[in-house]
Amino acid sequence: MGTGPEGLGLPAVGERQSLREQVAQALRSALVAGEMRPGVVYSAPVLAAQFGVSATPVREAMLDLAKEGLVEAVRNKGFRVSVMSERDLEEITELRRLIEVPTVARLADSGRAPDFQELRPLAQEIVAAARRTDLLGYVNADLRFHLELLALSGNAHLVEVIRNLRGRARLYGLKGLADRGLLADAAREHVEVLDALVRGDRQAAERIMTHHIEHMRGIWSSGPG
Questions:
Q1: Rounded CA gap, 209 and 104, in Å?
Q2: Which residues make Cβ contacts (< 8 Å) with residue 171, sequence separation at least 6?
Q3: Three-class SS of residue 109?
Q4: Each residue of 129-165: b (16+ CB within 10 Å) or e?
């Protein structure tokens, strides 16, 4: 097993929120993007050097992720990324279909067009990240888009449920799609769902969201090879 996270491209972190929270969020993004691999042991000092912080907030953040079941502690070595099974992902995908598809479809209302248009720059940011093969940028913008769109339902608990589900996903196939120039296809679905919502086309919004969730499941199933 390896001990170093070379090539993760982890960002330096600042002071706007606690270092622990910033590191935890950055690590979640790397996990979801498949940048951190199952079976690899990541040491807090090595990760801390990439973040440009001390090892303490990194250890604290990793312990938070361990409580969420995303990593597991390896005594005197660091933390290993937890492995997700096909069944795990199928259950996450089913929950997302049950929650997100009808919620987004119910939002379709041309009278709310200004609300949807506010999300258009974020949808375009997702497309731009896909084109430049910025996987962490893609994952972060994608998460923000979905959560902000769902927030228009006015149900904060629903948004938090989806946030937690998304944090457990692994999109190992993202890099392969990006390398083949296909990630932009998934990215454009964010723009398409906004177009449907602006038109008040509930059926189209439902169809696009269903396809998008299945699309992302297929990316995960591409495997970590």
A1: 8
A2: 32, 33, 34, 139, 216, 219, 220
A3: coil
A4: bbeeebbbbbbbbbbebbeebbebbeeeeebebbeeb
Instruction: Tell me: pLDDT of 13 over 70.
Output: no
Residue pointed to by tokens 């696009």: 208
Rounded distance, CA 152 to CA 137, Å?
A: 23
* Gap between the Cα atoms of 130 and 139, Å rounded: 10
Distance of CA 185 to the CA centre of its chain: 17
b/e map 107-125, b = 16+ CB within 10 Å:
bbeeeeeebbeebeebbbb
Which pTM does this prediction carry? 0.76
pLDDT digits (tens, 9 = 90+) for 142-190: 999 999 999 999 999 999 999 988 877 776 667 777 777 778 888 999 9
pLDDT tens digit string along 82-132?
887 888 888 988 999 999 999 999 999 999 999 999 999 999 999 999 988
Q: Which domains, and CATH codes, for the chain?
A: 19-81 (1.10.10.10), 86-221 (1.20.120.530)
